[in-house]
Structure formats: structure tokens, C-alpha cells
Amino acid sequence: MNFISENLILIIIGVVLFYAVFKFLKGVIKLIIAIILALTVGVSCYNLLISHKSLSYEINRYKTDFSYISQMKDITVEAKADVDKIKQGQNVKENINDIVALRDKANKLDHSSDIDFIHKKYIGAMDDIIVATKGYSTAKNATQEIDKASKSLEISLKDIF
Asked: How many Å apart are CA 129 and CA 99, to the nearest integer?
């Protein structure tokens, strides 16, 4: 009887802890959403009231930026897939060229001046990825050359002895 009551108490404590963690995470998510909405409304109010931009400008800005973010998400997914293929050694040069093409595509996307700093950071990150994947490719080729050279060295030493 004692064993069952101990298990029951542990189950109740587990459920209460799970509920508390769930409520905490739900609160954090609500806070993040509230901050994003406050910043969005703040930028819009600034543009409308202080910068004296028209309502149509704000609506077009939201349409443009939403389209931009949606396209950037797709480009990011494609670039990540190419990087994973490069890590696996599949069509390395072709995948590097795909990443360069994706960077050029991302650089040409239309976006508002309000998120230009995000665009510049994203393009900088794409440039870093291109440099890193080219370096990875070069290092992998150099490693293969070192392996070949070391094998030929082993053969030469065996021939000597």
C-alpha cells in the first residue's frame, strides 16, 4: 500500500511540474509575441505620426516585408540543404554554386528601408557561408591530397626497407 501511495504522489508532482513548465513556456511565448507586436506598432506609429508617411506606405511596407521574409525563409531552407550536402561530400562545387546563386537571389529581393539592417546581416551571413563552404571544400581536397601523399610515402618507406 505504501508503494502505491508513493507512486501516486510522484505522478501528481510530475503532473504539477509539467503544468508549471507548460504555463511558463506559454507565458514566455506570449511575452515574445507582445514585444514583437509592440515594436511593429511602434514603428508604424513613428512612420505615420512623426515621419508623416501615408497609410498606403505602411500597408505597402507590410506587404513588401511579409513577402521578403517569406522568400528569405525559402532561400534559407535551400541554402541549409546545400550546406548539408556539402558536409556529406555530394556535388560540392555544384552546391557551392547553388549557394552563390541563392545569395544573389536574396540580394535582389525587394524590402523596405526599415528592415535594411536585417537584409545586410543576412547577406553578410550568406557571404560567410560561401567562404566557409569554399574553405571546407578546399580543406577536404587538401586532406585527400595529404592522404595520397602519406600513402605514397608509406610505399616508399616499405620499398626502402
From this structure: 8
